[in-house]
Design brief:
The chain is α/β, with parallel strands linked by helices. It is built from 10 helices and 13 strands. The protein has a 7-stranded parallel beta sheet with strand order 7-8-9-10-11-12-13. Strands 2-3-1-4 form a 4-stranded antiparallel beta sheet.
């Protein structure tokens, strides 16, 4: 259930609703939108009565959420969440472009690439310091050295940085250097990792797994949200199908479906989605 506050509701009225919900055994998560605050009630709601909140000062209405994903649901925040990362707004009117190499291989490589992608119009620099590879014999990334290069590239260009975190043990290390934590496709259902990044309060981009259904992706996002981190983005990066013309199948259906179903900002990754650099421009336009 969500309690929608009036646009003019005071902080005291919001706090009163939160305390009343807690006294009924509910967990609460306030979500501040562009025009008003919404308070999501999750957990055991057996003692919660909608009429109690409808009669409280500052409350506009209460709404039951039918979706299994409560905090991720569009019903929770019809306006949609906007995440601000150093002035770059995800979920707003502007189209944000993130670009950079799959893996950080050297200081020169990442700094030169950062300068190039900024000149090309990108707003965020991506690069992997820890790389999950299909083969254990492939390059696994530079680790902390790569993170330091990413941080230096940010200083040179002013671009916020996103990089993947693969384990619970490395969350603090990665968060020390980057602005956005990325959960890769292989870790979409790593629930311990999802819960841990949910406690960081650092923006998180959650990638859809190769065989993950949209509802499964949203339930995985719920793990992060339910641990208190509302700064979550969802990423479509291609799924595995019978088609062999491209490395993956970029699921364009996911774009309107997720925008209709969820209040979470959406990111499209046409590079991994197709595996073909020539397809990146047309698939980017299609996603937008």
């Amino acid at each position: 259930m969500v309690v929608v506050m009036k646009p003019e509701a005071s902080q005291a009225e919001i706090d009163h609703v939160i305390k009343r919900a807690a006294s009924m055994g509910a967990q609460t998560q306030p979500i501040t939108g562009e025009s008003h605050t919404v308070i999501a009630l999750v957990g055991d709601l057996t003692q919660v009565q909608r009429a109690t909140f409808d009669a409280m000062a500052g409350v506009q209405k209460t709404v039951r959420i039918q979706d299994p994903y409560k905090l991720a649901s569009r019903t929770t925040n019809p306006e949609g969440t906007v995440i601000d990362v150093n002035g770059i707004r995800f979920g707003g009117e502007q189209v944000v472009v993130m670009a950079g190499p799959c893996s950080v291989e050297s200081r020169e490589q990442i700094i030169q690439t950062a300068v190039a992608v900024k000149e090309a119009g990108a707003s965020v620099l991506r690069g992997g310091a820890f790389k999950p590879r299909t083969s254990p014999y492939s390059f696994q990334g530079l680790g902390e050295e790569g993170l330091k290069y990413l941080a230096e590239a940010r200083e040179v260009t002013g671009l916020p940085v996103i990089s993947e975190v693969m384990t619970v043990e490395t969350i603090d290390l990665v968060a020390e250097y980057v602005d956005i934590l990325q959960i890769g496709a292989r870790n979409m259902q790593n629930y311990a990792l999802l819960q841990a990044v949910g406690k960081t309060r650092r923006p998180v981009m959650l990638k859809r797994g190769l065989s993950g259904e949209i509802n499964e992706l949203l339930m995985c996002a719920e793990y992060i949200l339910s641990n208190g981190n509302m700064q979550v983005m969802l990423c479509e990066r291609g799924i595995r199908t019978y088609e062999t013309a491209t490395r993956n199948t970029f699921d364009l259906n996911a774009v309107p479906v997720l925008q209709r179903s969820s209040q979470i900002p959406f990111v499209a990754d046409p590079a991994h989605g197709s595996g073909d650099w020539e397809l990146v421009p047309p698939m980017s336009l299609a996603a937008v």
